[in-house]
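Incident log, support desk, overnight shift.

02:14 A customer reports that sequence design results differ from what the structure should imply. Their input is reproduced verbatim below. On-call engineer (initials T.W.) acknowledged and began investigating.
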């Protein structure tokens, strides 16, 4: 292979990489996308829901997805309350009205024998919570936060 051919191929690869990179790069006008990871129970949910509310109060165009698995699904069960007895369904409803999505791990539900009908209506089932978090980060450009 000639030097010219090698340089041409390298240049073509560089131009292609730059084109893909610029097409995928977020601009300052694109909404920020955040995945919040809940896996530790009701105390984490209390803090996390407050964090999300504050996040949207400051940056209302942020696209937020909550992914819950393991003990993190507890707050999304009908009738769940925080340490002071306040129900979780109210802040979940409020945040869902602001565009927050709540995704729940099916593996967690099956392994803990939780009937999906016990979930709040604002939830959506995903096959695996950790796979969903990885997919959102790798394929959809979401930043990761864990309260």
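02:41 Re-run completed on a clean worker. Output:
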């Amino acid at each position: 292979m000639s030097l010219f051919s090698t340089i041409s191929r390298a240049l073509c690869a560089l131009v292609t990489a730059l084109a893909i990179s610029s097409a995928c790069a977020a601009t300052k006008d694109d909404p920020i996308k955040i995945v919040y990871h809940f896996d530790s129970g009701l105390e984490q949910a209390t803090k996390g829901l407050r964090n999300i509310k504050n996040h949207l109060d400051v940056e209302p165009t942020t696209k937020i997805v909550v992914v819950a698995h393991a003990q993190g699904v507890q707050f999304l069960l009908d009738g769940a309350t925080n340490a002071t007895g306040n129900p979780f369904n109210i802040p979940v409803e409020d945040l869902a009205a602001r565009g927050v999505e709540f995704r729940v791990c099916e593996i967690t539900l099956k392994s803990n024998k939780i009937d999906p009908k016990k979930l709040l209506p604002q939830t959506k089932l995903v096959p695996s919570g950790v796979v969903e978090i990885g997919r959102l980060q790798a394929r959809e450009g979401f930043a990761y936060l864990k309260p």
